[in-house]
Specification:
Elements (H helix, E strand, L loop, with lengths): L3 H27 L22 H36 L11 H16 L15 H10 L1 H4 L6 H19 L6 H17 L2
Helix pairs in contact: 1-2, 1-7, 2-4, 4-6, 6-7
Amino acid sequence: MTNKADDYIRSFGMSGMLICDEVRIIEQQFGISLGHACTVAEPPAEYYPQFEQSVRNEASEMARHYEMFYCLEKAIRKLISETLLDSDGVDWWDKGRIPAGIVQDVKANIQREIDNGITRRSDSPIDYTTFGQLSGIITSNWGLFGTIFSSSRAVEKVMASLNMLRGPIAHCCPLAEDEVDRLQLAVKDWFRIIG
């Protein structure tokens, strides 16, 4: 089982990301550089300049939201994996704790990658789950996760909100200013419901 120190470290890291986002907004709003951000390597020069500048600017803005979601989704998968590993051992995926529909979807996703001849993204089945399925794994194993989270209903609500916000980020659409605020609040809510 994960310990409180791990949860505090994750919370600290995500809080730092939120602060960085706010500093970036201030820099953008006032046209200044506070020197907090490292530079990101430019995409290949032969193609990148061919995209419209407005699209490139939008992509740069959206990258920070993608980064936050990437970290959050990886942290949630790790929390689930570690909790089930502590409970059921290394073969926890095969112990019947994962809802059958999720298991079938994961098998189909893995087979789709194999059939298309691409490199498998992971050897771990949980890396083939969707954000919504992660919520289902937590709530269907509430006997284990109830010691980590304050409320199963809160988990469902926060995960549903995050899942809705994930759509524009994952599908290359800009987030409205209100939705950026909602994303930051939803991430804060996630760490708040961790007991």
